[in-house]
Amino acid sequence: MTMTPLRALALVSASLSILSAPWAFDVAALNVVFKPLTTALIIVYAWPRGRLQPTVRRWILGGLGLSWIGDVALLWPQQGFLPGLVAFLLAHLAYIAAFTREHRFLAQPVALTVYALVAGAVLALLWPSIPAGLRIPVACYVLALTAMSAQTAVVGLTAPAHSQRRNRLLMLGGALFMASDALLAINKFALPLPAANLWILATYWAAQGCIASWLVPPATPVAPREGSLA
Q1: What pLDDT digit, counting tens, does each position of 115-173 carry?
Q2: Fewest CB atoms within 10 Å of the CB: 36, 58, 81, 207?
Q3: What is d(CA 143, CA 135) in angstroms, rounded to the nearest whole number?
Q4: Are 37 and 13 in contact (CB under 8 A)?
Q5: Measured between alpha carbons, how far is 205 from 165 in angstroms, rounded to an integer?
Q6: Residues 20 and 27 sit within 8 Å (Cβ to Cβ)
Q7: What is the per-residue DSSP string for 176-225?
């Protein structure tokens, strides 16, 4: 990808958020400012894209907006965890709605099986450490995340030639989202990871960037295909 000013600004913002951690600058205020800003910049990047597919665009922007709400909630790791979890669950549902506009829901059983096995293994590992009051919300979230990630594989594996690069990028985004949340859950419920926010946030924003990049750029003359299912 070309390093546009907007992408460069998002990279700087993400770096400052990551480096706010105790293992680096140890300045919490940087995270308060630059974590929401980074996701907001991804929304700005996505905003002009996908004009030929307005319904898809609305769902993607809705998912990004809900993710921004989740990011803000998680600035308070204890009090904000459950609201953040709900916001991200709704974001995944919004993404699923977007990804199923052109591709039948979970049309690749192998992809669903792989993601379900990975998610199930992580959840089983962490289950004894998850507080009783959070077990049902966490399980619901994992179900939504698994379905969303598997649906990105449906899109990627059924990509037509003219959009193959974008669709494969989306498939990568689903895998990165799963990796980010697995790292976050392990760090929160099992054992602290070294430089945890580096791995969690880097994979998270890369995932969101891949999802935003799936929307057709404004200069690309691609005919709308909403409603067709593969």
Answers
A1: 999 999 999 999 999 999 999 999 999 999 999 999 999 999 987 767 789 999 999 99
A2: 58
A3: 12
A4: yes
A5: 19
A6: yes
A7: HHHHHHHHHHHHHHT-PPTTHHHHHHHHHHHHHHHHHHHSPPTT------
